[in-house]
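Let us practice reading a record.
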Amino acid sequence: MSIPVILASASPRRRELLSLAFENFEVMPADIEEELPEGLELTQGPAYLAANKARFLAEKYPRALVIGCDTGVFIDDEMLGKPRDPEHAKFMLEALSGRVHQVITGCCLCFQGQEHIFQEETWVEFYPLRGSEIESYIATGEPFDKAGGYGIQGKGALLVRGIQGDYYNVMGLPIARLTREVGRFLSLYAG
């Protein structure tokens, strides 16, 4: 592809997954406030944040395809972000223990003043977790840069009973769908 591609994310997992679809792209995290406006339906939060990230960079690089993403973990009408500290991680993992939760990744594509936003949803079920399992997992340090306090592609895999939907969405980038959405989007706007 001769169009420059920019990933508006610092996530090493997203970078790894995007490399499956694009040989060359730049990684430029968007320096924005990640706060949701009042009145926004909570499950629309990932798409809202993804769009803000993509728009921020698209203003500076209008001739590039900018891809913004954001992932949220949802349970009990709450969106779980990244844990602040070990106690917060413990709270999250206890809330997920033995239950099904929803993972939503919002994606926004921007190119030459046009944009396309979509979300992918996956349902994840955790095994019931003993306190010692939670403590051991937190001690790995893995929970702290991940929404919901776990990484399915790492030691967090030991917590997961099953999933319904796109595994890569839980990692933070629904790469198969993204590739198809990019193809359709560019066919409309890249001539």
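A brief commentary: The chain is about 35% helix and 25% strand.
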